[in-house]
Amino acid sequence: MEKLRIPVLLIALGLVPIITTAQTLEDRVTEFTLDNGMKFIVAERHMAPVFFGAIVFRVGSIDERDGITGISHLLEHMMFKGTRTVGTRDYAEERKFLEKEDRIASRMQDLKHRIEPWRLAIFEDFARQSVASLPEKSKQEIGSDRTKELSALIEVLESTGSVPPESELYPTLAREGETDYLTLYADLKHSELEMEEVLAEHKDLIISEELWDAYLQNGARMINAFTSNDMTGYIAYIPANRLELWMMLESDRIRDPIFREFYSERNVVAEERRLHENDHESVLYDELMATAFQANPYGRPVIGWMSDIQTITRDELIAHNGLFYAPNNAFAVLVGDLDPDLVKKMARDYFGDIPARKPPDPIETQEPEQKGERRVTVEFPANPEVMIGYHVPTNPHPDSYAIEVLASILGQGRTSRFHRKIYEELELTSRAPAVTSEPGHRLNHLLAIRAVPRHPHTTEDVEAAIYAEIEDIRNEPPTERELQRVKNRLDANLVRMLGSNFGIAFSLGMNELLHGDWRTLLDDIEKVKQVTAEEVSRVAGKYLRPKNRTVATMVKAGEEGPAGGEVDFRALMEWIDSLPEKEKNEILARVQSMTEEERKEYARGLLKRKKSEQE
């Protein structure tokens, strides 16, 4: 087999300290597959006594169904809750609490169905207002104690004459026939109170964050996980002499996960969704995807829809785990100071006895050809912005390589056309319009363009300039200099990626996920380099057509809110995500009972803390 080599020019320039002419990437990669179908890719890099380990499952939001959107992301959270031996003081005793919690949750769900969503929304708003109107002394006594808050609310609900003001508008709100819906709602709050009390008792049997602590106490860092449209992954940087610890912990949570703290964690994810809904960029992105994809499951948000998050059951989570978290639906990538023979022996010892399962059914649904331009307008208290998406095929479609070059020429880097013309020359945008592939790569996706107008210019001005640049490249092929810049950028990006354990793992892992073979890494780069100027113009004419595009525009609506200005929820969520898991969960749990204005005020306080800690 021909060896995979970095271009000699880059070596001559001294840009490749990681791969030399004497040792190619393929020379340093060992792969093997266990009898249960789990593949391991091991890259030796003996530069420091550490390694980067990742386990990737071929499951993301595109593998979900309506009613349980966001379940892959929720499952990612739950995989840190431990097993029969990790995270518990007495699992046999814990089982009684798990079963009781499920019974209470089932009763709560039945009550919500009986009350019906429209009534429930009014009752919940009434409950928040009731708590907010309590005497200041009572609110201080309650503090952030959910049990005390529920007790106070139940007292209000069961007091004579306490009904929502909307009862005058909707005569059947509180009672219809023989059904007293306000009493049912009080029963729901009693059940919530019982759940809080059971969870508090259960907590005494839980060793919180034991898996995290085991890693941290053994020198690990970058312990994290992620869920995307295409996949779910679990990562850690760990000392090389702790390889066996990694093998033990990771195999244990695949083999025997216990989804303790499910209902409290589901609330944490629901709070993430609320923060997501307050971030203008996320809102615009979701609207574009939901409008552009009518059949293809890329139209679903990774975090899920709120109504689904709040009603996913533990049984559904267990079923999702059973379907997708199988060794034959996963692979591991380890890069660093490793002995491949030792990795293979340990992998067999720790992962080899995890049984394979029936592979998930492939996704058959394809997005039909779009018949005309689609537009959606989003009203939000934020500055105007526009996103444009064109349906394009994903790799390995032959056109995908020319589309990659087209995207780079239009809107990637300081030498791109959008940067030079729209941002620098015309000064239409506050930053250069960006061109990316969204939202994933396992299915046909979008070539997406995002732009923020610079005052006093409008989204219409920016759109017109973008379409003019697209028309130019459709009619006039790019220059050889532009093509060479793309090739140089590809080489530079590759060098950067292969300059760290993480970068190598990411590069190998993505190609394994999308193509089933990490060796396509450099093959694809060579195919991109072979793209001609005429091919770039051809795909621009074929795919970047008005009838094939979807446009999402954000227009500013409403007032900016209380003194202090808008809250940058994206920056806030990124900072919260960087906190220790325990502190992150405490913050998200605390805001669950707050009103919208209270959340904003609390968020401003957190942003001040973030700023002070970073100064």
Q: Give the structural class.
A: alpha+beta
Strand order in the sheet with the most strands: 1-2-8-3-7-6
The top level CATH class name of the largest domain: Alpha Beta
**What is the alpha-carbon Rg in Å?**
27 Å
Instruction: Show unreliable segments.
Output: 1-23, 559-565
CATH-derived architecture of the largest domain: 2-Layer Sandwich
- The termini sit apart by 53 Å
Number of domains: 4
Discrete helix count: 25
Provide a short characterization of the protein structure.
The chain has 615 residues and is α+β, with helices and mostly antiparallel strands. The protein folds into 4 domains: 31-88 and 208-351, 2-Layer Sandwich (Cytochrome Bc1 Complex, Chain A, domain 1), CATH 3.30.830; 91-203, no CATH class; 374-556, 2-Layer Sandwich (Cytochrome Bc1 Complex, Chain A, domain 1), CATH 3.30.830.10; 571-614. It has helices at residues 8-12, 25-28, 71-78, 91-115, 117-132, 136-142, 146-157, 181-203, 210-216, 243-255, 262-277, 280-292, 306-309, 314-324, 340-351, 399-411, 417-425, 459-475, 480-497, 501-515, 520-529, 533-543, 569-578, 581-590, 596-614, and strands at 29-33, 39-44, 50-57, 175-176, 179-180, 221-227, 232-239, 330-336, 374-380, 385-392, 434-438, 445-451, 549-556.
